[in-house]
User: Fold these one by one.
Assistant:
Number 1:
Amino acid sequence: MIALRNTGNIFVCLYCAWCFRVLCGYNVTRPEADKLILNGKWTLKNSNGTVSLTATVPGCVHSALLRQGMIKDPYFRFNDVAYKWIALENWTYTTTFLVPPSLRAKQEVHLVFEGVDTVASITVNGITVGKTDNMFRRYDLRVSEVLLEGENVLEVRLLSPVLYAAGRSQASAYRVPPDCPPEVQQGECHVNFIRKAQSSFSWDWGPSLPTLGLWKEVRLEAYDVLRLVHLSSVPVYDASLSQWAVEVELCVDAVEAVKGNVTLSLPELGTMQAFPAVFSAGHTKRTLVLHLDRSTDVKLWWPNGHGGQPSYLLRVAGLLGSLSLRADTQVYFRTVELVQEPITGSSGLSFYFRVNRKPIFLKGSNWIPAHALQDRVTPAVIKNLLQSAVDANMNAVRVWGGGVYEQDVFYSTCDELGVMVWQDLMFACALYPTEPDFIQTVREEVLQQVRRLKSHPSVVVWSGNNENEAALATDWFGIPASQRPRYLRDYVSLYVDNIRAVVLEEDRSRPFLVSSPTNGAESQQEGWVAADPYDPRYGDTHYYSYTQDCWDWRTFPRTRFASEYGFQSWPSFSTLQEASVAEDWSYRSRFSSHRQHHDGGNQQMLQQAALHFHLPNSSDPAQNYRHTLYLTQVMQAQCVKTQTEFYRRSRSEIVEGKGHTMGALYWQLNDIWQAPSWSSIEFSSKWKMLHYFAQGFFAPVVAVGFEDEGALIIYAVSDLSTDLLLHAVVSVYAWSSQDPVCALKSSEALVRGGSASAIFKQPIAGLLAGCGRCSRLSCLVTFQLQDAQGPQGPLNHLFLSSPKDALCLQAPNITAVVQQDREGFVVTLRSLAVAPYVWLDVGAILGRFSSNGFLMVTRETVVHFFPWEPTSAADLARALVITTLRDLY
Ligand code: BMA
């Protein structure tokens, strides 16, 4: 709650949605006269007036045209290309509004745009009051002099983002590459010249739909004495004193200098302190530090899997001149450090996060915009995706730098769920201009975003850009050697001299990295652009290889921190169906090529799959198509599992100078539309097989099995805080039988909390010979960790040969019975044979299974279905399609 009250009984309640609403969940009571929300129905016209319609604000031109029936769904089939004209036009939003005398009479009246997408000039009653050039900024324009009592006309003239970017690039004194995206993306050029979601001009997983619009709230704010523009609270811990303090920042606009006092209190912790406060005329920033007693028992915020996420009410109360001020916010206490220090046995530096002094392995994935039209990204969509991340045992997401700084609800949900956020700043895969106006708008953008987000405990690191250090270091854009110094200078100017400076000025409570991937401290040593930003001995890495065999863990770099890696797959049929028609439903259709924005992607998926699986060969084309979609998901799930397990088991060891891996964030969590991509969740929010696999490979305790020099090795990996006394139970199964051929038990080992170590090792030849009746082709192994209490962590397995070579893999003829129970639905499966990659699909019925894509070695298995919308056992039974690997050939 935030309110400024005139003690003379007239309410002059001020409102700052930007900083308060979501950060803190305040209740605001204020008379409407001082805040006039201008959202709602506006008129929208193209430049020559041939298209005219009603448009909803917040929103964008595409959404308005769609809502008025003037275009069809831009995601349907090839419509993204058909609607390219929209972003080549200039568009004007107009609204007429009445200003009551009480508001007009205020000393100061401001027109506030929470978000303008992107380049616009704004007039009130025909007088220009401001210009915008940055989608990520809030614009606050003084309109006191131009506002009329009664009717006013507000106009926002938006320029075509595509033409603007082209114009800026043309006007640039030198080339700032890349010029255009690869042809396969069917995108627009020069997106680096406009401060707008970089993926909006197309990406290798997304369409080109450069939006234009007023994508966030528009309102008038009026005041006589002062207004509070921003409030944030950042807890800091003084280790030398063992004492917490909360830094509370107030930004105030005052008409005249005003004096008073502000009291900060944490009622639940019995802490209160009063501060004299002076705000001079104009804009003032004040930081007040509330010190907690050393004896105060502060409950800490922890990442998911490491503890709870408690918060405390922080009350801000004050008397400023004749105004009383009150604001309530939530504070979460935690510390975060990024540790980069020498490691014994390695020539590099460590790279790991320590939260509340505890080293934490970051498990998660990368977040991209959840829709090309941002007004379609509802809180429900965001919450569902983040809950899905947590349900797959993730504790972190990286908000990738080619999208948007997410909505407040994204970060508050991460706070509540214990999801750590690696927050990129919005620059990706390009070099950027450094003209003064560009730098200026970026500085303001970064300042505003850091202020908005710094109260969130979930944000654990700021990171300047995505892959731009690597782009320079490994010369993605063919820059002539003679010109390299200029681009290096520009890089340092933008990310170090400006962005880093602004971030550090605003927030020193968490680490700042200039890029990802980066060598971190080593990159800094090398002048901010390392010779090899992918060096696994330093910082984080991104790693992709589609041609090498992903089942071979030796192909992966043993990195300190894997912030990107992944493989593509296709979404399921029900998701694609929303965007296609029957003639599109084949792997080689025009539609299938159109949706694939990564050069050679469709081919690569099949090639990778063919290394270990038979490709579908049904004579029924529809069946073949569905089976191919399924197989790409099998391939992706298996590849990312192998790679992630390699990273998790590498956390405690140094091998040839490499290792101590402390992060695995695969590329990518979610999708922007219905298309092939690296995501583990489809656009429809349905989990792909990979997401189900993530539940297992990100489990707090897990057995990781792999083969090295002919031996089966099993690691026990634990993210727990406590030690465990574990043994591994290893069972050998023949593909032809649901009864294990033999079972073994390792000796007991002490597995320390937060460690990975080998618990079982045996030559495979010996193991199989000892078992009898087994060869690599006819048998597979399953394994699980156990202690005196029983199983610890999920059952895992390793195939000893490619399934395409498996002997006696039989048709399992799985049957299912669906029943309702208190929590949802129960599906009882019966199988006649060992069945790999058992996949349950209920089409468009939204929800998730408790597990899916699993290896079924038992005759009976029970799986739960948790619906996200009303459904029935009969509907589920009708929709349920079960696929296993054996069905493909
Ligand atoms: C990385 C990302 C994205 C991209 C992904 C897959 O480079 O940063 O730019 O979508 O790989 O190619």
Note: Residues 203-205, 402, 428-429, 466-467, 542, 564, 667, 678 surround beta-D-mannopyranose (CB under 6 Å).
Number 2:
Amino acid sequence: MKINRVEIREIRLPLVHFFETSFGRTTVRRIVLVRTEAEGLTGWGEVTCGEDPFYSHETPETAWHILRDFLIPWSLGKEFASAADIAPSFKLIRGHNMAKAALENSLWDVEAQMKGVPLWKLLGGTLQEIPCGVSIGIQNTVEELVEKIQRELDAGYQRIKVKIKPGWDIEVLDRIHSKFPRIALMADANSAYTLADLPRLKLLDRFYLMMVEQPLGWEDLIDHAKLQREIATPICLDESIHGADDARKALEIGAGKIINVKLGRVGGYTSARQVHDVCRAKKVPVWCGGMLESGIGRAHNIALSTLPGFTLPGDVSASKRYWTEDIIDPEVTVSAQGTIHVPQSAGLGYAPNLERIEKATVRKEVFG
Ligand code: OSB
Ligand code: MG
């Protein structure tokens, strides 16, 4: 596949409801989309970074810079036997995984169309109905949170994740646990604690959570291993895992028992599959995380979630939870059983709606 033309654009999409984590509140998303032309076909990818460098170092500005000045010039006019071959050519660039993933994933979309198969099949996916959970942010009041949980359970979602931080943790979980004692519940701290909080973190064991996600430092493995020896609640790593090597080391030292795989954070499909394989060989479950993606990133998450090791419900949920109008057709819908049926058409399986994308665009640059 020869890449003839790449277009990057930034769109702005207001969220239906603000999303708050331990590091802050988001109301409008700034999303960089990548559109790649090769072999007369068009593939799409999404940069999944946050607006601010709070989840990771990447922002729309850094992704734009790395795509414009490095990844795109290095790829234009080049011949790749398969999309999997583009990742090694980015190796010299340290980090910037979300920028890399957007370009790599767009080429996977092209390759799947070229071969006339759904992207998930090209990846080696087997699951055709994926289990879905929801991630619910910090709310203004606990009452509002309880109402939201009820709504998502009524919609059929199989697992509830709530965000926690010091001051919004044990008391909140206690309320949820007494109201919904039997639900599959988990908590995500986004690195809001340190080992100094050990007494408080030990209290999590009261709630029989499925897991606690990234309680400690955003690059830490060592302290997570110490914490895991002190608590019964399984630790799930998110921020700390940037690729298969991190996953291997984390499992070797017992830093966690579950891994959240995000396409952007690990740098694209090639790396995501490697993380999946490392975990699967050790019988460690993985699930697909979310980054408040537009339909394009969401469609990629669905494809990833079909790999056989994705045995736990992911943070991949319906478009309407995020957007009044998504930028793909059809939008992502979730069944009353809390599942997504994977698309059967070639490529991504959801068509980018160019009119809506154009309307949301605030800047655009074309290469090639
Ligand atoms: O830690 O999983 C996270 C959103 C933004 C940044 C980090 C995270 C999240 C989510 C939302 O939990 C998942 C989603 O619904 O897309
Ligand atoms: Mg997380």
Note: The mean pLDDT is 98.
